[in-house]
Every structure is written in structure tokens, then in C-alpha cells.
Amino acid sequence: MKKRGLVVVDLQNEYLPAGKLPLSGIAAAAANAARALVDARKKGIPVFHVRHESSKNNAPVFVPGTSGVEIQPAVAPVGDEPVIVKHFINAFRDTDLKKHLDARGVEEIVVVGAMSHMCVDAIVRAAVDMGYPATVLHDACATMDLEFNGVAVPAAQVHAAMMAAFVFGYGTVKSVDEYLAA
């Protein structure tokens, strides 16, 4: 069995209903992510937190120093769990995430977080391309309604399309219950 690490991606206040970029199903996703987090801590699985911050103070969201960039309390880091601050969608880009994973001997990752169609997608694809098999806990991730070329795409469909793409070619997708039972 490969050594596993849990990566908690961007479960920040900005995505809550009171934030500037509320996501559909964020409360349930954070609650499920918290369950996976408790399990990881109990089993000694290394945990890595990723937090997005804009690199510009005049950005509309994820402004440094605001409550929006803070990690939600239900999944807040404890002890020596690293927090990787990123300025791009991909958590590996211009960060030391890989260094942290390698330092802890992580060989495969489990991903929870936000947004399914952006930062979760980017970290899963990059991780797999770098040789880390990935499992996504689908009910511990959230996203938003999108629109393209006049077509409205509800968050549930955006999320399902991302999870289907992962299963098709990038990794394993499980519910938190399935993951905890394994």
C-alpha cells in the first residue's frame, strides 16, 4: 500500500454563503471533508492544507488579510500541518506543495475541497501527471453554477462532469463513506 496524504484544497470562508464567491453545497462538502480530516489525523495520514490568495490587493476575491482567505474552522489546520499558499489555480504551481509531499513520503493523494471544476481539477491532473495517484472524495468537494455560450450549467452537473472526467482518465472517485469504510 502506498503512503497516502490528504490534501484539503481551498475550503476557505470566501466560498461560504456570506463570502464573495458562494458555492453550491459548500456546507455539506466542508462537513464531509472534516470527517476525512478527522480520520486522517486519527490514522497518522499526513494532511496538507492549500489556501488561495490573490497576488493583487485590488482583486475582487481572496484578498490577502481578509476573512475570505481564511480556512473554514471545520477543516482548519492543527499542529504542524502545513498550509500551502497559492496564487494560481494549480496548487503545485510556484508553491512548495511537492516538497512537502515528498518530505513526508507521500506516494498518493486524497483530495477534498473547492472548486471541483477549477482548483480540485488542477491539483488532481497535475498530481497524476507527476506520478501521484489521486482519489477524489466527491461529496467533500463543491462548485458553482456556470454558464457557457448562453447555456446555464447547474453546479450539480458541473460537479458530475468533473468527477466523470476523473474516473475516465485521472483517478479514483469515492464518497467519504466509501473511503472511510475501505
TrEMBL record:
Record protein name field: Cysteine hydrolase family protein
Q: Show the CDD domains listed in the entry.
A: nicotinamidase_related (cd01014)
Query: Any idea where the Isochorismatase-like domain is?
Result: 6-148
Q: Which organism is it from?
A: Castellaniella ginsengisoli
Q: Which Gene3D superfamilies does the UniProt entry name for this protein? A: Isochorismatase-like
Keyword Hydrolase attached: yes
> What GO molecular function annotation could you give as one example from this UniProt entry?
hydrolase activity
- Presence of keyword Hydrolase: yes
The alphabetical list of record keywords is:
Hydrolase
Q: Which residues form a coiled coil?
A: none
Concerning Pfam families, the annotation shows: Isochorismatase
